[in-house]
Design a protein that fits this description.
Elements: H1 2-26, E1 44-49, H2 64-73, E2 78-80, E3 89-91, E4 99-103, E5 109-110, E6 121-127, H3 155-158, H4 177-186, H5 197-203, H6 207-219, E7 238-242, E8 245-251, H7 257-260, H8 271-277, H9 280-284, E9 299-305, E10 309-314, H10 329-333, E11 349-354, H11 358-366, E12 372-373, H12 380-383, E13 384-387, E14 391-394, H13 396-400, E15 404-409, E16 412-418, H14 430-446, H15 449-456, E17 461-463, E18 487-490, E19 493-496, H16 499-508, E20 524-530, H17 537-548, E21 553-559, H18 561-570, E22 575-581, H19 588-591, H20 618-627, H21 634-650, E23 653-665, E24 669-670, E25 686-687, H22 689-699, H23 705-737
Parallel strand pairs: 1-11, 20-21, 20-22
Antiparallel strand pairs: 2-3, 4-5, 4-6, 6-8, 7-8, 9-10, 10-11, 12-23, 13-14, 15-23, 16-22, 16-23, 17-23, 18-19, 24-25
Helix pairs in contact: 1-23, 14-16, 20-21
């Protein structure tokens, strides 16, 4: 009996010891790692995305959430120097910068300093480097007889294909000038609806007529299925000189065209891929160029599940590019030239995980599972502190984790626009136009963007005094740059005018104290926004309070983004919010947003028109047409100053603010220099994966002693019960051994 009890205690003690040992061993593991064990220690960058990309075909893609992928995959002829400021164009796939020549109506060349009015067309001659190859792709796969393997897929062959990776064979070929010309022709394709077609049709010689030719072919008897072979139809303004050289002709002079050559719109597309993807069976399975890009860039898309994750992997055929060997003076001090001259890209794989909520994304960053993070309002105080003259730095807790802050003023502007076709805020007669202008000016003073930046952006922004963002030629600093309609210059700084001035303007507009003088009714205005989450309601409440300063009732009309775009396109919004991120660092890219022929309503360009306010001022338009073709200089600056002066007086926008972008980066994340103009930056980044694994283990050690303690307590608590059970069993055994009475 005693032996059994001792044995039971020894068994319990042994089990507790084993459990404790197992828990101790498990404590050396990381239990909350969201990635597979096979990824441990690998050269992988972990990133996030919040919105699924709609287009990955470079002819259609025009959103920031799309270019983070397309810019790593495609290679336009030019790119921006990663480190130099101001932003500087440099060759990407070309041997040297394009040769630009001006010509008259008789094709005679003109000197570089000729007046723009004398130029009939500008010619860009572009020569690409030999030896550049496409990523491995089934569109290039051939058989022993050099015939295409997958260009005439049967139903039987398609039955086993569900994604691009299901094709067992791939191939490649060399990049040629024909591929660049093919993509330019695609801008006019009637089924692709490129967002820059309208603009490019004004400049690329013959592009508008070419679109007409393609429409006729598409609707005519010669049309064959989904594929339109653009090689069969020449485009007047673009021609191939040889396999490595092509030319583009631009109507007149358009200096900004050089910037477009650094965008994916002008990246190469091989006709074989276009033909491959046009097969009906593949289109039905969503295996298209819009879903699976094919490029010559440093990375290729190997997994596309936009509701969960997207993966880029190093293109094995990419070579011949090196990390910059020069930069700005501070770049040397910040270690940004430690990898100078080394071959890129450094990172083998980029995993993008879709995160819809900010809190999980932030927590995973702190645990080391995301390599970088933005800073939401709810985590700002935890991450950032202001020191000195408003300079931002990370908090002590962040610094102890080795996290650093990178900040830059974005080449962007967020604004609230007035629909100039609206009878109240825009005016349709001379009298109502004057009244509406004073109403817009009054609202411009009342809506306090300094307060907005402080409350909702945690100080991350600069109040805008016009449409042009800092860092772009034409932007004025200091007293020269203030908006005198809204600000006074006091004590060496801009100060927003008194609300009394706004009320005076409101009364002059015909709405004293927010009451319509003619009808006696309160003034009610309508604010169109995209659908908002619950946490954004405070922003809308704040905006209502700004209008309430003038006793104006603001009614918010919230809708989804597609419906919002439709209302803007049809001119059905009264007041709306929007923003613009520069495509290229030139003032024309901001000032065209208020150019009359770019009006959304009544514009044949449709969705590619960008004047959402439908603003139309003849003097402004005339100056814009003069300014856009000029090189930067004193005369151009004078014209820009006058244009901005007109805009400030007319106030078609509440100028809003230029955001400051803050990014947090772990110590193992190297070579980061924020640059939103250049988007193909991933190839320059480097990850110290060993340091990352070490920190992940340190920061994510499971706290197991409570579990072990609870386990031991449970076992000890069971001992009395076990003892009782054993006594019961023993007594039953004794009874069984006793002889029965006769």
């Amino acid at each position: 009996m005693k032996l059994r009890n001792n044995t039971m205690k020894l068994v319990v003690f042994y089990l507790a010891s084993v459990a404790l040992a197992l828990l101790t061993a498990c404590g050396q593991m990381v239990w909350n790692n969201p990635y597979p064990d096979s990824d441990v220690g690998k050269n992988i960058l972990y990133n996030v995305f919040t919105e699924r990309p709609k287009h990955l075909d470079p002819v259609q893609s025009y959103s920031a959430n799309e270019i983070q992928f397309t810019a790593q995959i495609y290679q336009p002829p030019l790119q921006y120097h990663y480190l130099k400021r101001p932003f500087t164009l440099m060759p990407y796939t070309v041997i040297e910068m394009p040769a630009i020549t001006y010509h008259d109506l008789h094709d005679y060349p003109l000197p570089d300093d000729v007046d723009a009015d004398a130029i009939a067309y500008t010619q860009y001659e572009i020569s690409i480097k030999p030896g550049i190859f496409y990523q491995p792709h089934p569109a290039f796969a051939t058989n022993a007889e050099s015939g295409w393997l997958y260009h005439q897929l049967t139903e039987e062959a398609l039955s086993t294909i569900y994604r691009l990776s299901d094709f067992p064979e791939t191939g490649t070929r060399e990049l040629t000038a024909h591929d660049y010309v093919y993509q330019i022709k695609r801008l006019a394709h009637p089924k692709l609806h490129s967002p820059i077609y309208g603009l490019m049709a004004d400049y690329i010689v013959g592009l508008r007529d070419y679109a007409g030719v393609l429409r006729n072919v598409q609707s005519g008897p010669q049309a064959s299925g989904n594929f339109l072979n653009l090689n069969e139809y020449p485009l007047e303004g673009v021609d191939v000189v040889n396999d490595y050289t092509y030319r583009i002709k631009i109507n007149g002079k358009y200096p900004q065209f050089i910037y477009w050559l650094a965008m994916p719109f002008f990246a190469p597309i091989p006709w074989e891929a276009d033909l491959f993807y046009s097969q009906k069976g593949l289109v039905e399975k969503n295996i298209t160029l819009d879903w699976y890009p094919v490029g010559t860039g440093p990375y290729m898309l190997t997994e596309n599940n936009p509701n969960l994750r997207m993966v880029l992997e190093k293109n094995p055929n990419f070579h011949g590019e090196f990390y910059p060997e020069e930069g700005m003076p501070a770049d040397y001090e910040n270690g940004l030239l430690a990898d100078a001259g080394k071959p890129i890209p450094f990172i083998d794989k980029i995993v993008y995980t879709r995160e819809r909520e900010g809190i999980p994304r932030w927590n995973k960053f702190l645990q080391g599972y995301y390599d970088a993070s933005g800073i939401g309002s709810d985590s700002f105080d935890q991450a950032v502190q202001l020191v000195g003259q408003g300079e931002a730095t990370v908090t002590e807790a962040m610094a102890q984790q080795g996290i650093r802050l990178e900040a830059t003023v974005a080449v962007s502007t967020f604004y609230v626009g007035f629909n100039m076709l609206d009878p109240i805020v825009g005016g349709t007669t001379e009298k109502t136009r004057n009244s509406a202008r004073k109403l817009r000016q009054a609202i411009s003073i009342a809506v306090d963007y300094e307060e907005f930046i402080s409350i909702f952006a945690n100080g991350r922004g600069l109040p805008a005094h016009g449409p042009i963002a800092p860092g772009v030629p034409g932007y004025r600093h200091g007293q020269q740059g203030i908006n005198p309609v809204v600000y006074d210059w006091i004590n060496n700084g801009p100060q927003r005018k008194s609300i009394q001035v706004a009320r005076y303007l409101l009364a002059e507009a015909g709405y004293p104290n927010g009451i319509d003088r003619e009808t006696g009714a309160p003034l009610v205005l309508y604010f169109d926004v995209t659908a908002r989450s619950a946490e954004d309601r405070s922003v809308l409440d704040w905006m209502r309070k700004q209008f309430q300063k003038l006793n104006i009732q603001l009614v918010v009309r919230s809708t989804d983004y597609n419906r919002f775009q439709d209302k803007i396109r049809k001119g059905n919004a009264q007041i709306f919010e929007w923003g613009w991120h520069a495509d290229y660092p030139d003032p024309e890219n901001f000032l065209f947003l208020l150019y009359g022929p770019q009006r959304k309503v009544g514009n044949s360009s449709g969705s590619s028109a960008n004047n959402a306010a439908n603003y139309d001022n003849p003097e402004y338009d005339q100056l814009f047409e003069q300014m856009k073709d000029m090189d930067n200089g004193l005369r151009r600056q004078e014209i820009i100053d006058r244009m901005v002066e007109i805009l400030r007086f007319d106030a078609p926008w509440l100028w809003g603010y230029h955001p400051k972008e803050y990014g947090l980066y772990h110590a193992w994340y190297k070579n980061v220099k924020p640059n939103r103009i250049s988007n193909n930056n991933v190839k320059y980044y480097r990850i110290d994966s060993s340091l990352r694994e070490q920190k992940r283990r340190e920061w994510n050690k499971p706290v197991l002693w409570p579990i072990a303690l609870a386990f031991v307590i449970i076992i000890i608590s069971l001992l009395p019960a076990i003892s009782v059970y054993r006594r019961h069993e023993s007594s039953m055994g004794i009874k069984k051994l006793q002889p029965k009475s006769s």
